[in-house]
Amino acid sequence: METVSLKFKRLTIIGNAASTGVDGDNALTVSILNPWGVAYDTTTNIIYFSEWFGHKVRYIAPDGNIYSLLSSGLWNPGGLSQTNSAILVADASNW
Q: pTM of the prediction?
C-alpha cells in the first residue's frame, strides 16, 4: 500500500476593483474578473485560474506576481485541469 502525504497552505488573494492590472503586477493589487476554474501545479508552485469575464487564463507565479497564459482565442474560459505539463481549459462559449 502506498502512503501519500499532503501539505496544505492557506492563501488569501485580495484584488483591487480599480484595475485588472497587467502582467507582472503583484497579485494582491490586481482585480480578477469572475474567476472560475483553478488548478495548482505542485512541481512549479504555480496557481492557474480562468478569468470568465476577462476571457483569459492567468497564473500566479511563486514570486506573487500575476501573468497571462492565454489572453486571446477564449470567450468564457471555465474549468481548468493541470496534468503533467499541460493545462486543459473548458471554454464554454467558443463554438
A: 0.74
